[in-house]
Amino acid sequence: MRDLERFPRENHVYFCECAANTGMEWAGAQLNGAQFTHGMIHNMEYTGVPLRLLLEEAGYDTAGKWVFVEGADASSNGRSIPMDKALDDVLVAFKANGEALRKEHGYPVRLVVPGWEGNMWIKWIRRIEVTNFPVESREETSKYTDTLENGVSRKWTWAMDAKSVVTSPSPQAPIKHGKGPLVITGLAWSGNGAIKRVDVSKDGGKTWETARLAKPGEKMALTRFYLDIDWDGSEMLLQSRAIDETGYVQPTKTQLRDVRGLNSIYHNNCIQTWWVRESGEAENVEVS
Question: Among 33, 70, 73, 113, which lies 20 to 30 A Cα-Cα from 166?
Fold first, then answer.
């Protein structure tokens, strides 16, 4: 740690999302609340040293095409990372939100792989090895693959595509003040860059309104959005749709199912629907 802290460090705010976030929703509306459907995610400021600098200091073989990173826990959770990504924005982090990593977050050092699925953010790092090929570990063969409609599973789907969710009103945040001014708010993110726009629908996707962003979207970080309305007390089918800087538009569940079927688990970034009743109570429903 003393040696690591002598290297030039960087601070970045990034989201970390589990690949299985929203995974229970493939077959239909299952869990009643944003915390349960979308809660396997965090957004923190990480402090660390670019992996690129450490590889250069070690005099790595520039012919290597992959980096294998292994943790010190019992499962090791070793993962292979393409060299292009390793040399780009990957950090070896030792602080989160200005403090030393908590032990459950990987103390003393963990990997930060911006925009990519959380299982690649190796905790409790004990080994970094340059290889000419992917190691094909347990976590990149038997797990973290995406089943397609035809039964074939694809791997190397690391990036977390654009996604969003309305956090209020929602099942855990009902409308309590009755009719009148109402702020619809939520979060959007993309592993492929910054969020550029978020649209909100009150009628299950028939019509859309552009929300305002709390601030310009930042690469691989959560972005808060708002839509200010005058609620007349009628039912709503609330949805949000994120668009990132690449032009990618968050898909409906039907669009995902056309490719992935019903038996997938990971990378479910479909549009979420909350049915808001006249009472202000909300429920998870499917409008796909």
Answer: 113
pLDDT tens figures, 178-212:
999 999 999 999 999 999 999 999 999 999 999 99
Which contiguous run of DSSP H or E holds residue 99? strand 99-100
Residue for token pair 């292009």: 84
**Count of CA atoms in the C-beta half-sphere (13 A) of 105:** 18
Per the structure block, which two tokens stand in for 175?
A: 């409308």
Same CATH fold assignment for domains 4-149 and 163-285: no
CATH class of 163-285: mainly beta
Q: What is the Cα–Cα distance from 147 to 1, expressed in whole angstroms?
A: 40
- This prediction's pTM: 0.95
Hey, what CATH topology would domain 4-149 get? Sulfite Oxidase; Chain A, domain 2 (3.90.420)
* Cross-strand bridge partners of residue 230: 181
Q: Which residues contact 223 (CB under 8 A, 6 or more apart)?
A: 187, 188, 189, 194, 195, 198, 213, 214, 215, 217
For the four alpha carbons of 38, 40, 42 and 48, in that order, the dihedral sign comes to negative
Of 73, 82, 136, residue with least CA distance to 103: 73
CA distance 122 to 76: 8
> If phi over 0 gives left and psi between -120 and 50 gives alpha, with beta otherwise, what is residue 22?
left
- Sketch the domain layout of the chain as residue ranges: 4-149, 163-285
* CA–CA dist 214, 11 (Å, integer): 21
